Structures are given as structure tokens and as C-alpha cells.
Predict the structure.
Amino acid sequence: MGIYLRSFTSFLDSKGVNYEVISDTNVGVAYEYEDRRYSISVHFFKDDGHVDFVSWGIGSFKGKEYQANQVCNTMNSRYPSFKFSLDKDSDVRVITSIDTSYSNAGQAIAEMTTKIVFISSFTLYDFDKIR
């Protein structure tokens, strides 16, 4: 387990946040916000401060992929630091990444984990229109 992953999990422990260490490079965090459950996978591919985030929880759009992709494109324009797309199961996923220094890694990674949930929740109105 790398120093950035340890810093992140230590920060989560200090805040009482539940998480699961999936591997030496991956931590799963689940958030409930406004009656929705968001699953965030936090990836530490190298121990260099680069961290990738993938979030699910906006919804599944099987049979409505065209409309969902249109909304994803709109959200990609609205939130350029985040990438909205459909996965192979037609679920919306949100992807982003950060580069951080060790001195603030735990807090910075936790803040981005929370931010991806908030950004996802801001888009619900647009996605819910096509359900």
C-alpha cells in the first residue's frame, strides 16, 4: 500500500468515513447524498500523487443510451474537469483526476471524492428528464 493511499485512508479514518481497500492501488468509498447512493472508486496507479476517481450513482439508461449520451456531452461542456460517459451496462459514470503533494494528500483526495458526488448530484435534474 502506497503512501498516498495510506494518507487517504488515514484521513477517512479520522473522519469516521467507511471505505474498503480493494487492492494496493484502489479504495472504494460509498456516499449517500440526497437519497442516492454514489460509489466512488479511487485509483492510485503509481505512488506519485496522481489519483483517478470514477463514480457511479446517477443512474442506468439501458434503452435510452442516445439521450443519455447527449446529456453526458452537455455535462462534459458544463463541467470540463469531469468526464461523463456511459459504461458497458449503460450506467452513467463520472471520471476525474488530481495531482497532489504528500503534505495534503489525504485531505485533497477526500475533498475530490466529495466534490465528484456533489457534481454528480447537480446533474440529476438533467438526467432525470430522460428516465
Observations:
- Strands lie at 19-23, 26-33, 36-43, 50-60, 83-86, 91-99.
